[in-house]
Backbone:
């Protein structure tokens, strides 16, 4: 599997790498969920993780912001190197909080805090110690605009986040993630709980966002991956089977297995 | 944690003095409990029998009724009934026990005597029955929580097979909630064993080695209050008995709780 | 603000409470009095630790407690303040019981009777063969001690299979519902429940059956079941003006108030004598660290107390 | 495939099964009635007995030997103050313990032991707490028979209830909210302070009030630590006590509480005192009713604003 | 929308109809989740319900066995007629239990009861009042065979159902549904929680089952619908957009909307 990366990497050698998995592996207690993953994440591009249910997409994604540290018994192997500072995100001496301040995350189910819309977005800033009222307001507005939500909520910033529709909630969560001005944003099936219209608006947003930030997204929906991603990684039972430019992976996959999956022969 | 340590320390320390004077064999096997009499006997079995009998009566009321109420509220009752009945039941658990005690003595006992004239004015039966009523809310409320925690998917599975409410409740929901229900029962038992005022008022404080609820009897707890309120000189062997009795009580509840913990571990919900 | 702290027997409580109430009113709130109930034993324990000024006691101080007080350097003045007449009661439906002798009571109550004497006619063949059900205060009470001493001859020596309760109302309930019931408790409880219970006349040493009443107790004919009850005043506290005033008030007005709460007062002479003992600070107990039956209060007050 | 007789057979089976359903429905209501009726009888009985005695004087008078003058002023003030201490002691301790166990403690055998311990404490008879408090607070710490000792005793008694309620409330917060907070870069403490505590406050408060409603009726442990029975004055207001005047003098003041007042009255010989006892009992039950009512209302009010 | 049915129905007029929605509608309280559905379900065929998330597939499926009766405030409109006895399943006087005895259901997440494997399957029979031990054993064995699970569990019938793997659990649930000898089995995304191998075995099982019983299945996976169903219904926001023979719907959908969905242009 090691060469899955190698074979394709040459094709886009001119791109900057934002992060990179090196011989990365992961264990839930005794269960090895990921094995020997080598994969680049290119700067200001959208990378999609696809694969059948249970193949480890979420596990890989959540390793990038050390979410697994919250639960006992989990163990990382190998490295995830972040650029430009060449930091190993998984290193003992790197504080997971530092990692999470640089890498935001948006979840499958919109999870706004039971607070006002304003406070939801401001939270990432407050955590960073920002208290200045007007600065907060500026940044919140900016993030809500970035998440294409400002016009819909500008008159009701004090409403509860939960009062928004599902799609709006998800955009609120994106605004929250944006507020922190992160280098990478992780999305774990961000539209699977949404209706088609909301889905379309989130997809559009993601394509806009990649101007400013690197994006890693897990999706079950092959069409979605095809529509929005620049690179696609196909995983199967904890291994990275194929990685490449999206168009290439979808049109001319190098592995039979990938082809079977993409054409719907199983899964 | 610290509290337990402190409780155990004080009880053991004081009981030590007691057991230095009274060999443990006499404590366990004597059939009379007359520590304050001239001819002193220290058979804890007597108090234990009272404790167990009254608890048994209480549990015979509380467990079936509590379980039925729990099933009814979680599986049968319309939303409105449940929202009103549950807090109401919780009130039953909030009534000061001394109030229950007098209620048993001046209301229930005469009532029972009409049915069963032989019944003495103080008996473990009426105290136990009222105690049962007092415990119902604990059993019902906790069991209901456990049953409601059973995922709807399981219930839907049963209904989809064509089961009625009762079939679903008894054959699917109850087994799935076993561990929660077991802990509700255990808590009920602990409450019964540890209840003080009801028994002190209505059961007759007569140390009596009997398992017949229609007699009067003394329990460990009622003995402790009795002595704590009494004219006994502190530091005497008679006074020390309350710590020995307290220790026995603690061991008893501890046993039940460990049993409960084991049961919970054993029947961990597998939805 | 001056504070007088009192704790001890529940038997003595009603009188002390009444005195405390009136005393505080008389002093217009300048002195505060608190009264607790933790039993004679509990009260004396606190007293001998120096935590309270006065202990209410329904029995004399015992050897062990004397030692405690001595160890803590607490000296005390023993003051009888009223009588508690133990009343033997039966169910009003009981027709055959006209009077009872101490010997008959002993047959019923002695330890040997346990499980054996269960019918009235086993005590006196003239009585019916109804089941005999006994009611009495708990074994930890001063009343129980006194009754066993007076009837069986030895304190705390009793059968165990009777219904015991700390709360005399509970005993009232018991006997009033049980046709074959017999019980004993303080006079006040009988007095308040005259409609539900009947007092049994007890045959005294002279062979006369006496029905308990305030007069009979005061003239000494109701015996041996009447006993004096006490307060113990700490000698050190007695130096404090508020305590001194309170005790004096107690001994001056206690008789009237005792009667009001249905206890039997001492004679005026006895109160005077007690007041005299108090002002002379006669410390110690007139008993030798154990209780006695049938002593006259006048004699007690004359004795030379020991510590 | 499906014959009419098959359907008939099925209908028979259903009818039979449904008869049991109906039977159980009735049984459930009856069982509920046993509880409800007992409470009603008890409550009405007490109300009828005690109602006559309840007037303004009953609340503003001190105890007295004359039943008709006796009131519960010192008792209800004492109860209120003791509850205040209980709440102030039990809430921070219980909540801290609950939060620690849920959010910080590693899940190992030690937490297991602590867990058993807490459930076990909930089953320890209250009288045993009384014995403990007597030795610990009254003598060891020298707090005497004061409001402070009583409050702390009851706080110990309800601590398990508060801890369990806290943990339940915290567990009801979906993991996804927690992950959301951590993903924003929050520390554990920030997560607890900004999310866990605010969102679980309704549940915690409910637990505290239910615990306090239980504590308010406790007689046995307060008796063992030696609460007073006759006390005809109130604890000093802050800064008004005879020197040295202080803010917290009342903590060390002697006191009595409602259940003890009631207990004392029930054991008096005069019938009039029984009426007083019923009146006091009635008010005590009303107090617990009010507390439980508040708990239910709070649960309802605060939960409305929190949806995941 | 009414003519969605009509247009296709002619093509398979020779097939027997097992059940039929007539002007069927459904309300969750005030919210109308389904509107005016007219659709046949053909006897001994597999009918697939597809459509974007939230379009009402599950709602429609669960109307067939009156699952909505379990929750307050739900309301049916129109009729669902079952053949051959021409019963309106939704009629007031029809007991939902009777309906459920005729129509079994398999859920999205396997939900075995916390009982032994044997008791799980026997449950449907016990509910029908069967107590005879050997008869029960026969029927349980028969159903487990029907669900292709017999060989794997015959030695551990007293094991807890929860101890099986996900795919086995789902087959156990199918066995449970089969034991009742139902006329229709409803499947609500039965494989969405399973891995590819388990999914394949369930799909195979469904194709076998249609020899004996009518099947209605909700699926998110277009490929799955194409592989196993004979008829496909495409729904969108509470309405039935298109109904027809599967091959036809997938190859030459009559509505533009259906085509967009199937080719992955949205959803
Ligand atoms: N907390 C956990 N403990 C143990 N095993 C886990 C845990 N979470 C996931 N797994 C296992 O790890 C493997 C990968 O899971 P993961 O959630 O990453 O899959 P996924 O590709 O995201 O699947 P899906 O598409 O269903 O979300 C699966 O086999 C899963 O069962
Ligand atoms: N219990 C309910 N109360 C109110 N509305 C509901 C309820 N269940 C579902 N709905 C709504 O009804 C509509 C149809 O829901 P349904 O679950 O049938 O969709 P679905 O097609 O099965 O979607 P999915 O593919 O996500 O399972 C949705 O808008 C949903 O929000
Ligand atoms: Mg995932
Ligand atoms: Mg669905």
Residues:
């Amino acid at each position: 599997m090691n060469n899955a990366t190698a074979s394709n990497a040459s094709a886009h050698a001119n791109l900057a790498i934002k992060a990179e998995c090196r011989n990365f592996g992961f264990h839930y207690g005794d269960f090895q969920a990921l094995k020997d993953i080598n994969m680049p994440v290119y700067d200001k591009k959208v990378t999609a993780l696809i694969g059948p249910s249970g193949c480890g997409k979420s596990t890989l994604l959540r390793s990038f912001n050390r979410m697994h540290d919250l639960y006992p018994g989990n163990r990382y192997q190998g490295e995830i190197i972040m650029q430009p500072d060449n930091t190993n995100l998984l290193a003992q001496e790197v504080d997971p909080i530092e990692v999470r301040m640089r890498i935001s995350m948006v979840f499958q189910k919109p999870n706004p805090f039971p607070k006002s819309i304003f406070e939801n977005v401001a939270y990432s800033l407050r955590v960073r110690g920002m208290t200045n009222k007007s600065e907060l307001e500026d940044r919140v507005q900016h993030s809500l605009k970035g998440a294409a939500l400002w016009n819909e909520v500008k008159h009701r910033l004090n409403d509860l986040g939960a009062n928004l529709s599902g799609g709006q909630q998800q955009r609120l969560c994106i605004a929250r993630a944006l507020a922190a001005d992160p280098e990478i944003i992780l999305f774990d099936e961000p539209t699977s709980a949404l209706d088609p219209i909301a889905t379309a608006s989130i997809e559009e947003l993601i394509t806009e966002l990649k101007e400013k930030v690197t994006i890693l997204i897990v999706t079950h929906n092959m069409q979605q991956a095809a529509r929005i991603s620049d690179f696609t990684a196909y995983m199967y039972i904890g291994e990275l089977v194929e990685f490449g430019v999206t168009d290439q992976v979808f049109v001319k996959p190098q592995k039979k297995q990938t082809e079977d999956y993409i054409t719907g022969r199983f899964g | 944690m610290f509290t337990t340590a402190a409780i155990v320390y004080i009880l053991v320390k004081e009981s030590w003095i007691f057991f230095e004077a009274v060999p443990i064999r006499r404590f366990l096997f004597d059939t009379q409990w007359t520590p304050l009499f001239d001819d002193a006997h220290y058979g804890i079995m007597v108090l234990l029998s009272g404790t167990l009998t009254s608890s048994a009566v209480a549990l015979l009321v509380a467990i079936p009724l509590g379980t039925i109420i729990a099933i009814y509220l979680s599986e049968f009752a319309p939303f409105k009934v449940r929202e009103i009945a549950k807090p109401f039941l919780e009130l039953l658990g909030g009534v000061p026990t001394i109030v229950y005690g007098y209620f048993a003595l001046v209301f229930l006992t005469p009532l029972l005597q009409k049915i069963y004239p032989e019944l003495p004015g103080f008996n473990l039966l009426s105290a136990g029955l009222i105690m049962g009523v007092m415990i119902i809310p604990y059993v019902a409320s906790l069991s209901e929580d456990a049953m409601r925690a059973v995922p709807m998917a399981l219930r839907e599975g049963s209904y989809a097979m064509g089961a009625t409410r009762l079939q679903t409740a008894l054959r699917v929901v109850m087994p799935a909630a076993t561990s929660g229900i077991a802990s509700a029962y255990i808590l009920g038992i602990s409450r019964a064993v540890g209840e003080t005022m009801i028994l002190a008022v209505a059961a007759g404080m007569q140390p009596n080695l009997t398992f017949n609820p229609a007699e009067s009897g003394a329990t460990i707890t009622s003995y402790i209050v009795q002595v704590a309120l009494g004219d006994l000189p502190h530091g005497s062997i008679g006074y020390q008995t309350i710590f020995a009795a307290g220790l026995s009580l603690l061991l008893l509840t501890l046993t039940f709780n460990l049993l409960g913990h084991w049961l919970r571990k054993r029947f961990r919900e597998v939805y | 603000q001056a504070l007088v702290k009192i704790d001890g027997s529940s038997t003595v409580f009603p009188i002390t409470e009444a005195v405390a109430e009136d005393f505080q009113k008389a002093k217009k709130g300048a002195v505060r009095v608190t009264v607790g109930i933790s039993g004679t034993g509990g009260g004396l324990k606190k007293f001998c630790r120096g935590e309270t000024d006065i202990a209410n006691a329904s029995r004399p101080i015992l050897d062990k407690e004397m030692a405690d007080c001595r160890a803590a350097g607490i000296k005390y003045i023993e003051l009888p303040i009223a009588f508690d007449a133990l009343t033997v009661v039966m169910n009003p439906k009981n027709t055959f019981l006209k009077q009872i002798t101490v010997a008959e009571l002993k047959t019923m109550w002695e330890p040997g009777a346990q499980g054996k004497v269960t019918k009235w006619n086993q005590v006196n063949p003239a009585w019916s063969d109804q089941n005999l059900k006994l009611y009495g205060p708990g074994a930890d009470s001063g009343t129980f001690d006194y009754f066993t001493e007076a009837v069986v001859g030895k304190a705390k020596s009793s059968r165990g299979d009777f219904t015991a309760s700390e709360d005399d109302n509970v005993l009232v309930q018991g006997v009033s519902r049980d046709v074959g019931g017999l019980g004993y408790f303080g006079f006040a409880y009988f007095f308040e429940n005259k409609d539900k219970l009947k007092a049994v006349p007890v045959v005294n040493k002279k062979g006369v059956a006496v029905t308990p009443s305030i007069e009979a107790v005061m003239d000494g004919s109701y015996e041996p079941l009447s006993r004096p009850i006490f307060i113990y005043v700490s000698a050190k506290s007695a130096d404090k003006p508020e305590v001194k005033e309170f005790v004096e008030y107690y001994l001056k007005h206690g008789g009237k108030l005792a009667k009001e709460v249905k206890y039997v007062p001492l004679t005026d002479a006895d109160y005077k004598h007690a007041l005299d003992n108090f002002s002379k600070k006669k410390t110690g107990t007139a008993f030798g660290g154990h209780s006695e039956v049938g002593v006259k209060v006048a004699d007690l007050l004359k004795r030379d107390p020991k510590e | 495939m499906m014959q009419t007789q098959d359907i008939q057979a099925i209908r028979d089976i259903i009818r039979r099964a449904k008869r049991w359903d109906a039977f159980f429905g009735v049984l459930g209501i009856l069982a509920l009635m046993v509880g409800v009726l007992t409470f009603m009888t008890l409550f009405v009985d007490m109300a009828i007995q005690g109602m006559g005695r309840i007037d303004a004087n009953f609340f503003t008078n001190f105890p007295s030997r004359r039943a008709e003058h006796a009131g519960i002023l010192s008792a209800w003030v004492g109860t209120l103050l003791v509850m205040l201490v209980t709440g102030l002691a039990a809430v921070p301790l219980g909540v801290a313990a609950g939060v620690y166990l849920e959010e910080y403690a590693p899940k190992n055998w030690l937490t297991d032991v602590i867990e058993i311990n807490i459930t076990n404490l909930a089953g320890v008879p209250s009288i045993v707490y009384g014995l403990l408090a007597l030795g610990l607070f009254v003598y060891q710490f020298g707090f005497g028979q004061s409001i402070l000792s009583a409050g702390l005793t009851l706080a110990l008694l309800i601590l398990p209830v508060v801890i369990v309620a806290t943990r339940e409330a915290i567990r009801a917060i979906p993991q996804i909210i927690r992950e959301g907070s951590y993903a924003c870069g929050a520390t554990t403490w920030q997560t607890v302070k900004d999310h866990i505590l605010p969102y679980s406050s309704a549940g915690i408060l409910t637990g505290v009030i239910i615990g306090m409603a239980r504590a308010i009726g406790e007689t046995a442990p307060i008796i063992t630590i030696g609460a007073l029975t006759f006390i005809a004055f109130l604890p000093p207001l802050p800064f008004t006590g005879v020197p040295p005047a202080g803010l917290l003098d009342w903590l060390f003041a002697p006191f009595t509480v409602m259940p003890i007042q009631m207990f004392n009255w029930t054991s008096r010989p005069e019938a009039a005192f029984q009426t007083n006892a019923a009146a006091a009992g009635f008010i005590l039950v009303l107090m617990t009713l009010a507390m439980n009512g508040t708990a239910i209302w709070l649960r309802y009010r605060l939960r409305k604003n929190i949806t995941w």
The longest strand of chain D covers residues 228-231.
